[in-house]
Amino acid sequence: MTGTGIRLQAPAPGWAIDADVVVVGSGVAGLTAALRCTAAGLRTVVVTKARLDDGSTRWAQGGIAAALGDGDTPGQHLDDTLVAGAGLCDEDAVRTLVTEGPDAVRRLIATGARFDTDAQGTIELTREGGHHRRRIAHAGGDATGAEISRALVEAVREGAVRTVENALVLDLLTDAAGRTAGVTLHVMGEGQHDGVGAVHAPAVVLATGGMGQVFSATTNPAVSTGDGVALALRAGAEVSDLEFVQFHPTVLFLGRDAQGQQPLVSEAVRGEGAHLVDGEGVRFMVGQHELAELAPRDIVAKGIMRRMREQGADHMFLDARHFGADMWESRFPTILAACRTHGYDPVTEPIPVAPAAHYASGGVRTDLRGRTTVPGLYACGEVACTGVHGANRLASNSLLEGLVFAERIADDIAAHRGRAGSPVPHPAPRALPLLDPAARPRLQHVMATGAGVLRSATSLADAAEQLDAVHRDAVAGNGEYKAAEPGVESWETTNLLCVARVLVAAARRREETRGCHWREDHPESDDSAWRRHLVVRLNPDRTLDVRATDTHHFPPTTTETTAEAPTAGETSVLETAAVDAPREP
Ligand code: SIN
Questions:
Q1: What is the pLDDT of residue 417?
Q2: Is residue 43 part of a domain?
Q3: Which residue from 77, 136, 218, 264 has its CB within 8 A of the most atoms of ligand 1, so it is best to mutate?
């Protein structure tokens, strides 16, 4: 397989650096991969879009799930993960996660991360939705991600990892044989490495995080614009399960028109006993699921949405007044501060909450060693689809997934170290017309309205049509828009449109309700037709191949061989959906 030949419109690289591996992104996955590659003697460069600690990891509250407690076993963790994933987890990937997870957490502690412990020094564990036991290690009360990020950033700064901050990666470079040869990137820097340049390396690790900014309201930071998935698609890689966007049930509700990153209210607050109540104070999750407020996340989000619809409300409430001031201050200081900043005091009143986009369960399709379908291109963390999450990620499995699969990637790169081939221009490179960044709020509104928690054929068809209109207007500079120049905001907005279109195409195709994909016109799961994955590839003519496959597995892609799709031995249906494809205007 070769790439699509489609590239973001950008100036030619004006500088270049060489490395053995370039890691794109600096969350738990990216920095873990970088530290381990460096320890293996690989010349490693981390490029990251803002500062090293600006990604999603820093915002993770609840913690990191692993079978660390007395009586807990990887097998029990596996069972809970499979149930949450609603029939679409890859069991091999989950088994890898839960068995390698506890030691990966211990290595993270050895790197310097400090988890909350009791007086005897034993790690304290909490519960979150879908977990049948206390299994979530946390730090700083509700500041787990910030602590993990601090420890990893410190280790990177003290070590031999070269870092390039304020660097947006644009496209993958490949050699004449279609193998990875590095990336192009734009750096807002000074001096030698400023503007568009290249890092030449035979291995590229995408760890760019998620795409929450494709929706109006999200828990994700501003940098989560789907850049890794869009790059991978342009590079010819497959993406999978993109329709499964997890909406976190309890995000502080700041009004219907709230835009961008919203304050998360960790599921651990419910894990410690908070109740969800409606405007009349009724606990509406009781009776809906044996775990009530601690049911898997999709079930709680749906329960909230249903109650909101029944009552014509735009939010519900989370009541944890019974914790008292001391517990709020010691256990959930971050959430307490965020609530108070916005005028709510959880010590004395129930706080308003509503679901918002939180996590992409799908992403760039990878195998158990983090390899994508493009030789030399790896992915880990939220940008990847390892098969662990299926149709709905189990709470606090994502930091663990970032750790475990990043380590596996580093080991694979170290075992197959190669030399970068010379990057070649594609025979007919086609520059993707860029979108005026002024179109971003409209795109986000379209996605929130048509492809949010509750979807239907009509809402998704409307979303697809509106995205086409956004594309037409914003590329051509119609009406309120200007023709866009290359720049960080227009590249990001173009990436957002790309991932929005793929997400909508997959969500239209999946005519059932499963996990976090909720179709009101197909309210049941349909195992006979849809216990399958939707795998998407971008074609050189900008149409999309959307293919249903029975398995997450695909044949190995090594530096010596290239993958073919569809794969031998896989019962798959090849269908081409041209309708939603990103096309020339
Ligand atoms: C939370 O703390 O509720 C978020 C944890 C997660 O998304 O896994």
A1: 84
A2: no
A3: 264
